[in-house]
C-alpha cells in the first residue's frame, strides 16, 4: 500500500510537469542563449565595380571650311601614276576641303592659274613656273618632290640608244635612225623637257615635220600606250611608266642622266589678282604637300607595288641642291 502511494505521487508530479509545459512556460532569454549557437553575421563583401566600357576613340572630323570647294590643276603624271589617289583623299579627310582635280599638262595647268581658273597648281616645268611667278600669277612656290625622265622603247632598240653616252646622244641616235618617236606635243612639263633635249642636240624634228616624229597631243598614259602599239620610242616620267608597265610592250632603254631630272613644285595662285580663288584651300594644300607626314607618304609610294620609289620627297631641300637654277 505504501508502495502504491509513492508511485501515485511520482505520477502526479510528472503530470503536473507535462501540464506546465503544455501551458507554454517560456524559457528565459539567458537559457535560450546558452542553448542556441551564437549567430555569426555574414561577412559583407561589396560587389566588384564594373568599369564603364570606354567609348571608341574616333578621330575628330575635320571642321568644314567656310568655302570647302577648291580646284587643283596638275600634270597628268601625278594622276596617271596613282599618287593623287593616295594624297587627295588624305588631304580631304584631314582638312574638310573638297578637291576637284584637273589633270592636264603642266603648260595647261599654268594657263589655268594665269586665268584664275585654279586655286593651286602641282606642276613639273621649272622654266615655265619661273615665268609664271615673275608674271605675278603665283604668290608662293614650294619644292615638293622629284623623280626622273626615262627613254623607253621596244626591246629590239632599233636606234641603239642603250649604248648612248648621254641623253643628247640618245636623241641623236633616234633621229639618225629615223626611228619612230611619240611626242606628247601638249606643252606639258614632259613635252617641254623633250623639246629642250632636241634643241640641245641641235635637232628640230617637229619643225621639219619629220615623218618618224608623231605628236599624240595626249597625256603620258595615253602616249605610252600609243608608243607601245607602234613599237616606238617616247620620253616618260618614271612613275607613270612603272604604273602602266604591265600593259606596255616597252622597256627602259636609257636613264640616269642628270639632264633628265623631273622636279615638282606646288604653287598658290595669286588671290589678289583673282579674288574668287580659294586662298584658304590653296594654302592648306600647299602646307599639306610639304608636311613631314605627306612627304613620308610620297617617299613610300610605289615601294610595295613596284619595289622602288616613284617619287623622292624634297620639301627639306632647295632648288639649288637639285641642280635647278
Secondary-structure content class: alpha/beta
Fraction of helical residues: 40-55%
Mean pLDDT: 86
CATH architecture of the largest domain: 3-Layer(aba) Sandwich
How many strands in all? 10
By CATH, the superfamily of the largest domain comes out as: Periplasmic binding protein-like II
Shape, principal axes of CA atoms: globular
Total domain modules: 2
What distance lies between the first and last C-alpha atoms, to the nearest angstrom? 152 Å
Based on CA atoms alone, the radius of gyration comes out at: 44 Å
CATH-derived topology of the largest domain: D-Maltodextrin-Binding Protein, domain 2
Low-confidence stretches: 1-6, 18-59
How would you describe the oligomerization state of the chains in this entry? single chain
As a percent range, the share of strand residues is 15-25%
Q: Helix-strand pattern, N to C?
A: HHEHHEHEHEHEHEHEHEEHHHE
Instruction: Tally the helices.
Output: 13
Amino acid at each position: 500500500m505504501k508502495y502504491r502511494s509513492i508511485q501515485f505521487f511520482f505520477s502526479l508530479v510528472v503530470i503536473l510537469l507535462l501540464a506546465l509545459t503544455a501551458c507554454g512556460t517560456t524559457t528565459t532569454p539567458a537559457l535560450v542563449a546558452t542553448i542556441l549557437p551564437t549567430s555569426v553575421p555574414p561577412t559583407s563583401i561589396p560587389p566588384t565595380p564594373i568599369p564603364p566600357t570606354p567609348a571608341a576613340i574616333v578621330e575628330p572630323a575635320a571642321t568644314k571650311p567656310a568655302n570647302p570647294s577648291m580646284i587643283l590643276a596638275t600634270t597628268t603624271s601625278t594622276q596617271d601614276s596613282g599618287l593623287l589617289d593616295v594624297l587627295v583623299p588624305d588631304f580631304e579627310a584631314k582638312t574638310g576641303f573638297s578637291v576637284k582635280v584637273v589633270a592636264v599638262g603642266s603648260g595647261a595647268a599654268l594657263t589655268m592659274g594665269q586665268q584664275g581658273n585654279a586655286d593651286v597648281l602641282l606642276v613639273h616645268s621649272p622654266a615655265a613656273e619661273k615665268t609664271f611667278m615673275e608674271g605675278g600669277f603665283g604668290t608662293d612656290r614650294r619644292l615638293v618632290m622629284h623623280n626622273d625622265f626615262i627613254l623607253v622603247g621596244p626591246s629590239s632598240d632599233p636606234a641603239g640608244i642603250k649604248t648612248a653616252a648621254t641623253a643628247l646622244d640618245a636623241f641623236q641616235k633616234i633621229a639618225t635612225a629615223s626611228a619612230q618617236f611619240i611626242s606628247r606635243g601638249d606643252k606639258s612639263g614632259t613635252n617641254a623637257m623633250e623639246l629642250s633635249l632636241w634643241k640641245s642636240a641641235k635637232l628640230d624634228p617637229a619643225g621639219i615635220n619629220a615623218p618618224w616624229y608623231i605628236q599624240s597631243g595626249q597625256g603620258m598614259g595615253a602616249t605610252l600606250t600609243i608608243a607601245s602599239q607602234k613599237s616606238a620610242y617616247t620620253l616618260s616620267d618614271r612613275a607613270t611608266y612603272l604604273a602602266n608597265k604591265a600593259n606596255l610592250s616597252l622597256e627602259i632603254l636609257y636613264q640616269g642622266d642628270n639632264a633628265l631630272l623631273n622636279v615638282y613644285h606646288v604653287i598658290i595662285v595669286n588671290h589678289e589678282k583673282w579674288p574668287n580663288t580659294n586662298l584658304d584651300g590653296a594654302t592648306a594644300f600647299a602646307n599639306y604637300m610639304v608636311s613631314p607626314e605627306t612627304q613620308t607618304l610620297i617617299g613610300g609610294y610605289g615601294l610595295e607595288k613596284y619595289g622602288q620609289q616613284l617619287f623622292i620627297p624634297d620639301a627639306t631641300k632647295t632648288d639649288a641642291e637639285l641642280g635647278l637654277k
